[in-house]
Amino acid sequence: MSIDQADSRRKFLQFLAASPLFAGNSVLAEALLPKARLPDPLTWAALDPNNLIKTPKEAINVFDFEPVMRQNVPPAHFGYMASGIDDEVTLRANREGFLKFQLRPRRLVDVSKVDMSVDFLGIKFDSPIIIAPTGGHKAYHVDGETGVARAAKSGDHLQILSTQSTTAVEDVMATRGKPLWFQLYATNKFAVAAHHVKRAEQAGCHAVAVTVDRSGGRNQETLFRLRPSDSRNCSGCHDRSSLAADQRHKPIYDGVDLSGLSNIQSSAMNWDFIKRLRDTTKMKMVLKGILAWEDAVLAADAGIDAIIVSNHGARSEDSGRSSIDALPEIVEAVKGRMPIFVDSGFRRGTDIVKALAMGATGVCIGRPYLWGLGAFGQPGVERVMELLRIELRGAMQQVGAPSIKDLKAAMVRRA
Predict the structure, then answer these.
(1) Cα separation, 198 vs 279, whole angstroms
(2) Do residues 15 and 84 share a domain?
(3) Total number of domains in the chain
(4) Which ranges of 83-143 does DSSP label H, i.e. alpha helix?
(5) Cut 0.85: pTM above it
(6) 49 lies in a domain?
(7) What is the per-residue pLDDT across 56-93, written as a single tens digit (0 to 9) for each?
(8) Which of 44, 207, 349, 355 could tie 360 with a disulfide, CB 3.0–4.6 Å?
């Protein structure tokens, strides 16, 4: 008779777990019993939640920061950051999408010196890694957006500031010391959009990145499940009496007439709205949230300065398609007529190098730097960005690209 060793071992461990031997010896039980795999999204982090990093320098990858943030940040705030939509199919697809593409390393190329510098719409940066717009930084750490700006300055990264920033654009600009891009939630009220754009321009922002993928409501189930476990009084951060009252907490809304505004979504925005908005500013205009090649072509035809291929970090819809999967068809359709940036799901240097080789001009990082912020404040953000730069440099060396311009489409193949 054959013996199933795995089944026998499982039954033995179950027997031990029920044995009096374990009654007062939790250490022995923990040592012998197998650890369960943590649920998504922590599957990408360290396995043992009881052995978390204590300082940013201890981190060996960006995932090490997420469980520390979860420990430090109130449940509702963490849930808002972590949440996708509905079944969170797209949230998982954004990570799994990179498995569809493989790198084709080239050898015998001198990569002893690696130049990661780039030019974004006429301004030079030392890295193609961009700090994506995310709202409410002070909900995660007192350092807030200015702490993130100092981290961006230390690595010379482009920073895109969210409309939902908890710090005034002027203060973030002064801290960063280099022109920001301003991300715009235009709403359906043109006067609100025009106000935000004019203020960002006066503050010295170089471009406005108009979010075009928040056209409807969203069912953020992770947020809704974690929020009831938050014992704090939410009125300390939010005024739920009306949308106008709640938005008053955001500095960009100072002096704006919000009467008649029921949502910050842009469900009525169309190409005429974009043209009208463009006529109000001299800043460069970028459209954030493009996922179909047809819309990318329309943007190029309309003279838009750049687009960001994005599914909003899986926070705007649950289509199931990753941004990295959408990138190739968009690059092919645009044919070099404007720069193409990309975000959503980027966590590794190899992720970044794949996108750059496929034709992206730059890659925006969102949740990872928030993990760093929530875990350790500004030093956490600095370490997250440093780790990504280290990994990107190594990935460039392995594919045989001493500079960003040396990354070619032939270095990536679909698996």
Answers:
(1) 11
(2) no
(3) 2
(4) 89-96
(5) yes
(6) no
(7) 999 999 999 999 999 999 999 999 999 999 999 999 99
(8) 355
